[in-house]
């Protein structure tokens, strides 16, 4: 009888041990099933709090590389020919393209022929604005601000000369228009290209002083420049 009781007790002990082992191996513990651990719910780890392991997706070096690539291939890079559309207070003006008239003067017109193609080409910190397809003796011409005595300054074409300050233009970014296009103020020194449709062929250059800037331009990419590289 005593031997029978000992065998029964031993069998019960083995059964309890097997059940305990099964729970440990196959079922989550109460603390695991309750949710994140206390250390996880307390906040970021020391490494993430210090910035380790949370680097920006684009490094400063990669951003600079992207910006440099865009500068080499964008509409103001000298590698692309563009239309310049004229905006007045952010809205395109009627017949808004800049184009070279037969007189050599640059006007605001609805002419979208080769006379309206230009190649803004870096020259130091400024740019020459070359004619995209219009040639003189096989070479591109450049835009130039010309003095007209007491009359407003006008924009005309001339043989390209990077040492001529009247041919060097600065493009100041003025933000996006309502079509998400970058707009620029274009100036020669302190004289801004300005839309003035009254008896001036639509375009003059003038110093603004304290006056508000109204005229900006959008450069519309029209493909790879065909201006000879040695111009």
| Residues in β-strands, percent | 35-45%
Question: Remind me, CATH topology of the domain at 81-224?
Answer: Trefoil (Acidic Fibroblast Growth Factor, subunit A)
- How many beta-strand segments? 12
Q: What kind of sheet is the major sheet?
A: 4 strands, antiparallel
Q: What proportion of the residues is helical, as a percent range?
A: 10-25%
Order of helices and strands: HHHHHEEEEEEEEEEEE
Shape: globular
Strand order of the largest sheet: 3-2-1-12
Q: How are the elements arranged and paired?
A:
Blueprint lengths: L1 H25 L3 H4 L4 H4 L4 H4 L10 H14 L6 E9 L2 E10 L5 E4 L8 E6 L2 E11 L2 E10 L2 E9 L10 E7 L5 E7 L2 E6 L5 E6 L7 E10 L7
Antiparallel strand pairs: 1-2, 1-12, 2-3, 4-5, 5-6, 6-7, 8-9, 9-10, 10-11
Describe this structure in words.
22% of the residues lie in helices and 41% in strands. It has helices at 2-26, 30-33, 38-41, 46-49, 60-73; strands spanning 80-88, 91-100, 106-109, 118-123, 126-136, 139-148, 151-159, 170-176, 182-188, 191-196, 202-207, 215-224. A hairpin with a 2-residue loop joins strand 9 (182-188) and strand 10 (191-196). The strands form three sheets. A four-stranded antiparallel beta sheet has the order 3-2-1-12, with no helix packed on it. Strands 4-5-6-7 form a four-stranded antiparallel beta sheet, with no helix packed on it. With 231 residues, it is of the alpha+beta class. The N and C termini lie far apart (116 Å). The model is unreliable at 1-55 (pLDDT under 50). The protein has five helices and twelve strands.
């Amino acid at each position: 009888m005593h031997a029978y009781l000992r065998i029964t007790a031993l069998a019960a002990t083995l059964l309890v041990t097997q059940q305990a082992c099964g729970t440990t191996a196959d079922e989550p513990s109460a603390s695991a099933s309750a949710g994140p651990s206390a250390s996880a719910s307390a906040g970021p780890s020391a490494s993430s709090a210090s910035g380790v392991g949370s680097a920006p997706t684009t490094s400063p070096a990669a951003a600079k590389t992207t910006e440099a690539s865009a500068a080499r291939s964008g509409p103001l890079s000298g590698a692309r020919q563009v239309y310049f559309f004229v905006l007045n207070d952010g809205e395109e003006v009627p017949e808004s393209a800049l184009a070279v008239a037969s007189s050599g003067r640059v006007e605001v017109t609805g002419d979208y022929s080769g006379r309206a193609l230009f190649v803004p080409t870096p020259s130091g910190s400024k740019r020459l604005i070359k004619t995209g397809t219009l040639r003189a003796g096989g070479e591109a011409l450049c835009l130039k601000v010309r003095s007209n005595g007491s009359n407003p300054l006008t924009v005309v074409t001339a043989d390209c000369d990077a040492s001529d300050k009247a041919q060097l233009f600065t493009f100041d970014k003025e933000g996006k228009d309502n079509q998400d296009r970058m707009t620029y103020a274009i100036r020669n020194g302190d004289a801004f290209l300005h839309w003035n449709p009254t008896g001036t062929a639509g375009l003059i250059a003038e110093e603004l002083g304290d006056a508000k800037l109204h005229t900006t331009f959008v450069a519309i990419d029209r493909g790879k420049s065909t201006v000879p590289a040695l111009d």
